[in-house]
Design a protein that fits this description.
Length: 480
């Protein structure tokens, strides 16, 4: 241990910069990583999000890259963290982690030391679980809580549930292959996929059924790693040897043409061999623009099942089930209160209930409506404040004196297009809507148009103080 430490720090002054040749080597590696990144995500996404990524340096097995704003940092880290890590590893096998952060603010003329204040204004970016830090061992990917027994069935999800059951019963039945599950965030797609896997593994005492489950992001990372180790054949063979392949959150592959291509071939090979495929996404196959036509067609060629937004009845039923599982007694009034207030998705509903239960346990107090109000104060306030895209469009139009209908019109003159872009930007920041969703509210525009708008406005904000003030003002008005 001590050997390792002394080896790493041996005679190295803390702030030593890399030697010129090392520097050149890193610059080289970085430019190759960039080039690959560009090829992998496509020109539009690259220019919108990734062009501004700069390399800050390497320390041991960690590369640090920086972005100019928090917004970009969060976005890049969430959407591309795993990919950037994989590409770096391809280039330099010693790399284990990529830290994505913003440049620490420069304060006056004070020496640029690691002052505690800096840490306060800019906490280090969180490592994405399973994201920026690739796992070396494949543990069981299935969550024990996600079974058919724990899934509460109601009108909005009964069809998807029935389809999932059917596949767990008899995989690769005619007409059910592939099974395409889609719906908004937190409505139970992943839960159902895991449930299928548990059921298959539990039931077939005799013949083991091999199930491969991974997020589309993981699929891409594994594919890129396979390219790196020149082991694509192994990767293919491994995938093609399973009985059931499940890919979660397929929308991640939008615009990632190489990976889509690979998935398409795997898909065909498996279906031809009579194996079952289950895919989830946040949109129906026909709405997945950015996924190649022939793949979309194939995705929609089996059974397509939609998970709808929850109803009040379903929310109550879910809350009752979860409370019972947790072994706590929650008064009906409290459950009703939660089901009324938290309508977005099951994950948030669950989160609120867990918080209440934890609080009650911690303070050994009975759960009452008052405690619920108190404990969930901040959550509920966020709900009350939730802004709609319509409100944003209205406020922005008023501000620049244009008609609201222009938000959806095809006109592209600057005095119309700019407010429209600002509205898209604010929609991205203030609502939880996805890019395609936002696009739809603006005359059915494509998600790449929204991406451009966000990037454009971000850029203008950093260059034009008056404009930045306008946007900030609008944001504050909308948030109140
Ligand atoms: P998605 O993959 O669609 O984003 P998840 O499957 O991760 O959503 O579900 C989010 C959370 O909500 C999980 O903890 C899951 O167990 C829970 N959940 C969703 N739908 C149900 C349901 N019908 N019954 C019980 N729990 C549910
Ligand atoms: Mg999911």
């Amino acid at each position: 241990m001590s050997l390792e430490i002394s080896f790493m720090r041996d005679g190295e002054p803390a702030l030593k910069s890399p030697s010129p040749s090392e520097d050149a080597r890193l610059t080289d590696q970085w430019s190759r990583v960039r080039a690959r990144l560009q090829r992998e995500v496509g020109e539009v996404e690259y220019r919108t999000w990734l062009k501004q990524v700069e390399m800050a340096g390497i320390d041991g097995d960690e590369v640090t890259v920086i972005l100019p704003t928090r917004f970009l940092r969060d976005w890049v880290s969430k959407e591309y963290g795993a990919l950037i890590t994989a590409l770096w590893q391809m280039e330099n096998p010693a790399i284990r982690r990529v830290d994505i952060r913003t440049r620490p603010p420069v304060r006056g003329t004070a020496p640029n030391l690691a002052e505690p204040n800096t840490a306060q204004t800019e906490p280090p970016s969180r490592a994405e679980p399973g994201g920026t830090q690739p796992r070396r061992t494949d543990e069981n990917p299935f969550d024990q809580r996600y079974t058919f027994e724990s899934f509460v069935v109601g009108k909005p999800n009964e069809f998807a549930y029935a389809c999932a059951r059917r596949i767990a019963e008899t995989p690769a039945t005619q007409g059910f292959n592939p099974l395409f599950l889609y719906g908004g965030v937190g409505l139970g797609k992943t839960h159902l996929m895991h449930a299928i896997a548990w059921e298959l593994s539990a039931k077939r005492g005799g013949k083991p059924v091999s199930v491969a489950y991974m997020s589309a992001e993981k699929f891409m990372v594994r594919f890129i790693n396979a390219l790196r180790y020149q082991s694509t054949l192994d990767f293919k063979n491994e995938l093609r040897s399973v009985d059931v392949l499940m890919i979660d959150d397929l929308q991640f592959l939008i615009g990632k043409d190489n990976t889509q291509e690979e998935f398409f071939h795997t898909f065909n090979a498996l279906v031809d061999a009579g194996k079952q495929i289950v895919v989830s996404a946040d949109k129906s196959p026909s709405d997945l623009s950015g996924i190649e036509d022939r793949l979309r067609t194939r995705l929609g060629s089996g059974m397509v099942a939609d998970l709808h937004a929850t109803t009040y009845e379903l929310r109550i039923a879910i809350l009752e089930a979860k409370a019972a599982r947790a072994g706590v007694e929650v008064p009906a009034k409290v459950l009703e209160f939660l089901a009324h207030k938290i309508t977005s998705n099951v994950r948030e509903l669950e989160g609120a209930l867990n918080r209440l239960v934890a609080h009650a346990n911690l303070f050994d107090r009975p759960l009452t409506l008052e405690t619920a109000h108190e404990v969930l104060h901040d959550v509920l306030r966020a709900y009350d404040r939730r802004v709609t895209i319509q409100e944003i469009q209205k406020k922005v139009s008023e501000h620049w004196n244009i008609r609201v209908s222009e938000m959806s019109s095809a006109r592209r003159s600057r005095n119309i297009a700019r407010p429209r872009q600002v509205a898209m930007f604010l929609a991205k920041q203030l609502t939880s809507k996805s890019l395609p969703d936002i696009g739809r509210h603006f005359g059915d525009r494509d998600h790449t148009t929204v991406m451009h708008a966000v990037a454009r406005v971000t850029d203008l904000i950093s260059k034009d103080a008056a404009f930045a003030e306008d946007v900030e003002l609008l944001r504050r008005m909308l948030e109140n």
